[in-house]
Amino acid sequence: MSAVRETLMAVAERCEREEPSQTLDFDILDALTPPATPWKYKPYTTSLDAAVTLVPAGWSFFLGLSENGRHAQVTLGRSHPTNRTVIQEGRSLPLALCAAALRAKAAQ
Length: 108
Fold this sequence. Notes:
Layout: H1 3-17, H2 22-32, H3 48-52, E1 60-65, E2 72-78, E3 84-90, H4 93-107
Antiparallel strand pairs: 1-2, 2-3
């Protein structure tokens, strides 16, 4: 697995277990931003609008609740050129969407 993939997966795992925070937002941004590129901070872990910007092009998403209604649930899907689906649960919709989007990016 490449270093970029490992970093994306590690940050996705943190989105599953940590509370929303600026530290996690900056770590997401750091994982996605090439070196020597200016950062543009977004509150990914607290804002659904910011988290949506992480969804890779060509992927669609559905937001909802898990079957037991206790967790946010996100389903990301891509039907072309290969079928892929990422289903992610989280403490909140922004955190679940961050984790799912990072996993989708790692799979590309």
